[in-house]
Amino acid sequence: MGGETVKNFNRILIFSITLMVILYVQPIQGNAEEGNLFNFYNGETQEKLTDTKEVIVNNGEINSTVSIIENEEEIHHEEFTLINISSIEKLIFNNQEYAIVNYRHDGSANALYFEVFLMNEDGMESIYTSETYERGRVVIEDNEIILEYPKFEKGDVKTNPSNIVTQHFSIIKNKVVENEKEISATLSDQKLQSNTLNGVNPSYAEINSILTEESLKANVSPEIVKAIAYQESGWQQYWERVPESVKKCPNYDGTNVKLGYDCIGIGIMQISNQMYLDEGPEKEEYIRKLKTNIRFNIQEGIKILKEKWNYHRSGLIPTINDNDSMVIENWYFAIMAYNGLLPRNNPLERPFSPYAAYQEEVMERVGNYSLIDINPFPTHKLDPYIIGNGQLRFKTSNFTVEGPQHYSSQSLKAGDTSFVTVNDLNLRSAPGGNVKGSLNKGTKVIITGKYEGNNSRVNQYVWFPIRTSSGQTGWVASSYLSPTNNYIDNYSLSGERRYETSVSIANFGWHWDQPSSVVIGRGDIPIDALTGSVLAAKLDSPLLLTQNNELTESVEKELDRLQPDKVYILGGDKTAISPAVEAKLKNKFGKKSVHRISGTDRYETAFEVAKEVGNSKAVNEIFVTTGDESSSDPLAIAPYAGENNIPILLTRNNKLDRNVIKFIQDYGVKKVTIIGGTEAVSTTVVNHLDTLVDNVERVSGKTRYSTNTEIIEKYYNKADISKIFVSQGLEIADALAASPLAAKENSPIILTRTENVPREVKKWMNGYITEKPNLYFLGGKNAISNNTRKEFNQIVK
């Protein structure tokens, strides 16, 4: 582009921006008898509403106030935190004066709510306050308030919603009436007009590079900034086709710069800081740079994100652990604040896409697009509340989150040392090039040069040139490098009691994936949960443990988050879970959604559960184990049984239970595998089984721990073991609750003592576990001590 062309482009663009600003502050015209619109910016603004009433608005960075003065007396005063008063429109309908006040929450959501005041000689009366609408906008036409806001579907970015909702509000006899909503699909021009000023998006490789560079300059993890940029705009500064709804914005300037559906957000990071700047050349220049300079837009987005990080200093958001800004997971609340401290960002109420809390969606994108095994925030620990003006707050100021902390691997530079975090990592000849070798987990590498990005917005990692100590060289993806020597991730899934531990497991394992079902068992006598864990695994559902006479509070809280379509109760109403708990669940989810699986005793309950697992089909194989709840023999088989839909049935030691016999006969079982030694299931039972099926096997060891390792060795290929769940071997509750998750991860459960790793387990692991698996410890430090955890890490390394 030549110099004169650039000058002409800039002249036209400045004219367009000036026109945009003029249009933006013009009163919204309708058929009301009279209308006056007052826009408010940063700092104090005073306007005359009527002959006798004045409004004083003071919009600050954190706190804002609005006062109405009549005859030098204050008749109305409100104070807000992280909410600005954006405008007041005075209307006269049928000789009655009204004031419509628009408020916007801080954050990229630009969440809007409005309040309607009746103004008369006696003062002002609030007659209506709307709900809060993300990225909404309001216009006044005739005797109606018209609200438009986006409706998102799964996978939508914030500038590209699938639908637009239009809501009409009428003012009738001094009351605001909500009319029906209209939902319409978003439409875009087939092509841009030839006379518009069209920007062209850089390649995704270039955007990847800019996002990485600017993040590193600001000491912010690029993985986070990239996920936010995708969440906001899909990594686009310009529309490829301008939506019709955007063209209706009063400040639409005829270009294809990405303007949000709220007519406020600008560009790749959807910056909205310009909204409250005073009119004039500085604001015009700021808007011009946001529109035409993608790097500047990204810089402003990062600047805003860092400001949100500092909200903890004012007590607006909590911190996590030591508040290390280089840990990706520690940005959870700052990411929330980037969008807004809104009730819609409460992850207990909005846990799953497409309506998930903003920070949850961003963190999920970090995992999916930067390929980092993010440790999800344990939302069951949250204690949210809503303050008077509709803002979200938390009672706890600092949350302790156990588990791996991920430092940005994209922050590595030439000369840095890092460690490979997976096995068989492809070593390539060039970024994304041919595979020339592989590296194993724990391999130490040296970064030998600058990164290169992918030409993709969904592959947000970068490539690094590396050299190993053995002299191998090549390129590897940043996702699989750790800047620290902690390349074995340690997860701690625990709670104060077994009930809270089951909640921790459910919250972790089904954090971003909503299950259709949940299985609930009794926590203090969890034998029914043993057989029920197979059903939970089949349904890809969590297994929660509750008290028998009341629904445990933490379990109820997690059920409210999960919102399953169906709840299975394990065991009878007298021996397991009471009718009171069942009634509460039916009241919460509906009678048809709650199904109790029970028998007269644990053996018959196991039979009924097995029927659900078999699902009226022929069952080739079953596992049979002891009905003694103190035995840990069946714990190791539960994940495998669940993963492969093999029912577990219970028997007495010296006599084959009638329910086992009936199931074998009803379902045509051909093979029975007994779990445990002869003290658990006697040879008498084996002899009886020999008369019923063609094949009877036993898997056992001399101790509960060796039985455990025998099961793993028989049913798991050691080359596939990349994760291990570790549970205390004397109490079965923690391991049972984790069985469906272990099945989901195709991973075994290893049993241990509290204070040390059993000798037979250590010896077996040293010979069998070769893949340096990540470790998932079930239960707190009272269940598995710190020393035992360290011992496991030393063994697998």
From TrEMBL:
The keyword Membrane applies. Residues 415-485 form the SH3b domain. Gene3D superfamilies: 1.10.530.10, 3.40.50.12090, SH3 Domains. This is SH3b domain-containing protein. InterPro entries: Bact_Sporulation_Assoc (IPR051922), Cell_wall-bd_2 (IPR007253), Lysozyme-like_dom_sf (IPR023346), SH3-like_bac-type (IPR003646), Transglycosylase_SLT_dom_1 (IPR008258). Keywords: Membrane, Transmembrane, Transmembrane helix. The keyword Membrane applies. The chain crosses the membrane at residues 12-29. The lineage of its organism: Bacteria, Bacillati, Bacillota, Bacilli, Bacillales.
